[in-house]
Amino acid sequence: APQLQYRGDALFLEDVPLAELAREHGTPLFAYSKASMLAALAAYQRGFAGRKAKVHYALKANSSLAILQVFARAGCGFDIVSGGELERVLAAGAQGADIIFSGVGKTRREMKRALEAGIHCFNVESEPELEVLSAVAADMGLKAPVSLRVNPDVNPLTHPYISTGLKGSKFGIAHKDALRAYQRAAALPGLRVVGIDCHIGSQITQVSPYLDALDRMLDLVDTIEAAGIPIAHIDLGGGLGITYNAEQPPAADALWQRLLARLDARGYGDRQLMIEPGRSLVGNAGVCLTEVLYLKPGEQKNFCIIDAAMNDLPRPAMYEAFHQIVPLQASGGKPVTYDVVGPVCESGDWIGRDRKLAVQPGDTLAVLSAGAYCMSMASNYNTRGRATEVLVDGSTVHVIREREDVADQLRKEKLLP
Ligand code: LLP
Question: What are the positions of the active site (predicted)?
């Protein structure tokens, strides 16, 4: 990204030298570029220019309050998946009408709170959920706006753990059951049908799965509307990938040009469109700075032990995901091949394998593409506090989350009498 660059031999995020950030705030440290987030959003907005369309940021990717504020101020809506995320977006200044609520397991309490907040729509994932939502809304004298998440059964060509639109998946309503579910929804007293949605997976790097999913959805829209149930909006979910290593995902505007052309060709150009991107708005806006603690030569491998771990950066352990790891200061030294690992007591606690690095203990490294699904998936495993986060805006640095200390972690615990 243009926001992350070596100037001379020092790595900068916007106009801030990262070495300075690490010195000032300690490590591990997450730093995000505001300009990079806004540029990613602008690519979607360009793709949609002149259309009735809205971006709902899927905040599970990074739900830190200040990140949400940046998107709220830029006119984004939000895709939430829990009552906790609802409170976060409201705290960040979003309006109920900007919010859609996804997820397979919404509780009655979460539904009630979302109805009180006046959210735009519930993305419902099963017939039993329709019944419960209708009952909750009817109790409050309301009609809940619903969209059904259908499972288009297309292969997103990505990692199996983040594929969600195939037949064997827990997500969505099967394509063949969708009409019946819509008829049920239209008949229930506490519901109002407003749309249709899908989400086929994440880190998608090709256009074709999206086009296939859109075709399958439009087939359903034909059938559902023929049965007398109008579908006001079509939501294509999230999932657009980013470059971690050598991937070449389509740009958001290019992807949308293809999708809009298909919509127009099939006569659905007039619909309200929605998308729920997470990773592609924040992933490459963030880096995690980490200090090299020890270099440990081994018989088969050399280890570079850093102060960030799987509790901060869980993606390699969970998905064998690749994140680039680069020095903050280009060094003249001779590179050695290391496995870059954290201090946590698990063999799965690695951040990068077989990386060529010229480093010394005390050096700082940057783990790249750490803006999405890192802090939001961070844990306290090994009683490690979650890291500090800063937002960089030009040459200004805002601390947006203080480092968690042990007292924070012990606060809710009770000793026996
Ligand atoms: N909408 C729904 C209903 C979703 O389930 C998701 C992500 C999104 C939107 C946003 O997808 P995105 O644009 O970020 O791909 N932890 C994994 C990714 C899990 C994605 C879960 N659902 C990872 O680190 O790769």
Answer: 345
- In the annotated binding site for substrate, the residues are 279, 315, 319, 346, 373
**For residues 38 and 33, what is the distance between their CA atoms, to the nearest angstrom?**
9
> Rg for the chain (alpha carbons), in Å?
23
Q: How many C-beta atoms surround the C-beta of residue 239 within 10 A?
A: 30
The residues carrying an active-site annotation are 345
- Which ipTM did the prediction report? 0.99
In the beta sheet, which residues pair with residue 235?
Answer: 197, 274
**Distance separating alpha carbons of residues 287 and 30, to the nearest angstrom:** 6
* Two structure tokens written together for 143: 């009609």
Instruction: Tell me how far apart the alpha carbons of residues 236 and 240 are, in angstroms, rounded to a whole number.
Output: 11
Residue 339's nearest CA partner among 288, 297, 301, 292 is 301
The atom of ligand 1 lying closest to the CA of 321 is 25
Ligand 1: does its nearest atom lie under 6 Å from the Cβ of 82? no
Residue 239 Cβ contacting ligand 1 at under 6 Å: yes
| Shortest-distance atom of ligand 1 to CA 315 | 24
Among 15, 17, 14, residue whose Cα is nearest residue 330? 17
What is the number of alpha carbons within 13 Å of residue 57 lying toward its C-beta? 33
Cβ–ligand 1 contact at 242 (below 6 Å): no
Predicted structure pTM score: 0.97
Q: What residue's CA is closest to ligand 1, atom 23?
A: 373
Q: What are the backbone dihedrals phi and psi of residue 410, each rounded to the nearest 5 degrees, phi first?
A: -85, -10
- Determine whether 109 is exposed, middle or buried from the number of CB atoms within 10 Å of its CB (0-12, 13-18, 19+): exposed
Q: Please, which residues bridge with residue 121 across strands?
A: 100
Distance CA 220, CA 62 (A): 32
Query: Which of helix, strand or coil describes residue 197?
Result: strand
Task: Give rounded-to-5 percent helix, strand, coil for the chain.
Answer: 35, 25, 40
- Separation of CA 154 and ligand 1 centre (Å): 16
Domains of the chain: 4-32+283-410 (2.40.37.10), 103-275 (3.20.20.10)
Give the C-alpha separation, 229 to 297, whole Å: 66
Supply the pLDDT for residue 88: 98
Q: Is 238 in the pocket of ligand 1 (CB under 6 A)?
A: yes
